Amino acid sequence: MSVTKYLEIAIGAILINNFIFSQFLGCCPFLGCSSKVETATGMGLAVVFVMGLASAICYVVYDFLLVPLGLEFLKTLAFILVIAALVQFVEMFLKKAVPSLYSALGIYLPLITTNCAVLGVVLLNVQNSYNFLGSVIYGITGGLGFMLAIVLFASVRERIAYADYPECFEGFPICLVSAGLVALAFMGFSGMQIF
Amino acid sequence: MNKILKLALVLFLICAIVAGILGVVDLVTRDRIKEYQTNKTNRARAAVLEVKVPEGEEQYVDIDLKALNIPTTVTANGQDVEILSAAQAADASGYVVETKFSGAQGSIVMIVGVSNDFTCTGISITQHSETPGLGAVAAGDTQKGRDFRASFEGVDGSVQLKDIDAMSGATITSKGVTAATAAAIQFVEAMVAAK
Amino acid sequence: MNFKRQLKEGVITNNPILVQQLGMCATMAITTSLFNGLGMGLSVLIILTCCNVAVSAVRKFIPDEIRLAIFVVIIAGFVTIVDLLLQAFIPALSESLGVFIPLIVVNCIIIGRAEAFCQKNPIGPSFVDGITQGLGYTVVLVIMCVIRELLGSGRFGGGLIDLAKGITLDGTGEGIQIFNSDFGASILTLPVGGFLTLGFLFAAMQAALKKAAKKKEAAAKNTEKEDEAA
Hints:
The structure holds 3 protein chains of 3 kinds. By secondary structure, chain B is α+β, with helices and mostly antiparallel strands.
């Protein structure tokens, strides 16, 4: 795979096929964790880290354990166990190393396990048959796309508080509508050709 | 320590039981899934180039691209198209070329039928992630999609966007399909010249 | 085990998507045709019911510390079974839903029900709970599909219904064209449409629930007044 191919994967993951606005992977924490820009940034960084590491480990597990033994059908089970263990380690690491971030993220950290984006990216790596470097790049840039989306949306959401909308839209509905409009903006990237 | 060991053992046991059950289901479904996948490529090939051979015989003879020594990335109409595979019809009525190119939302894999006088006999999209209702129409079974694909029949290696019936609202996809068709024909020309 | 009450809860008052706000990823992503919506909804219903029964059956035997891990393993098992069966018997649906079938593993609804309901209740109610919550999920998916398809391309039943072939399980049904697709707001078939449609559905649900709550309050106040007067 050439450098342009990796660049295509990277820019595709961040802009053209953004994990949230194009592929809808990772919506639950996107809507739940984006009320403040600081929390959103922290969550985004944690997800980038987990996605990159999960891509690497799951690639190794798939290519060197499942495929040689003909056990590809176990990939969903294997991947989710790897991700659960990984998140557990990240939690323990953050608790010791960056306790402020740990307490800020609170319940959302173990919830990264159920984040569609993490399991989604490792499954997509298999579906697109990326090699090791391609998988890791897709994992990290997918996470960066997620982070971009969540941080952008947090800034939008901070202003929703001052907006005037019908009462029945309070809470989730107005967030979804605003997210839709940001998704519309991201559509502008479709069809972008890399070189 | 003993407790952790016991917990790990219980978890491992449950995983093993579940994996065992999955193994049984996989055994039951494996052949059917494989059959469907091979049928899919053969059906796509048959859709673009009809081959008349006796029942049960190989319809298409795969060509070793590496032995040919011609580039497998063709640039047509300013767009890079990757040639994934090529096969000759068993009754020597033409060729089927599998191409990969950039659509509006990621890569598209398409099979192009090329006749012996280097015109297109048909196109069939086998893999894509285009937007439903827009780019995806090119691959779908609606009247619009069929008309779009039919407009490529008979074109040669110099086909441009204005020569075919492009889809409104899906210009990028239309451009990509045009470029890939031109590239496939140009590749067959180069292949025949090199022999 | 009041089936009617659980049904009302599953579909309306405790709807997994519109009230509990779980499992939204798939809801917005795949609701572009009735084929997808029904297929996904029924898959989740089957997986949810099977998982509920399984979790409820083993709830007294599994150690408490690793219960979440065991839930995940059981769910992954059933999801893989459904995934393999769909790939073998309804491959068009498997291709259409793509990566969202294995993603049912992390669908918060399933793990949420296992944690909140099944580990405390016997098999019977858990089974009913799986069916009712699954029905609630399917109903929302179908409503979203119908809205998006109808207003987006003027079609009903795309991929599933065909006027010539009847019900097509290979995804080629053209659907019933209610009005010319040129008049549709095709933006609804794009990701934007997913967000917008779900947002409006949420708003409608919230408005309806608020109205019902106000009615109940007013009724309660009235009975209070009557009691005082009496």
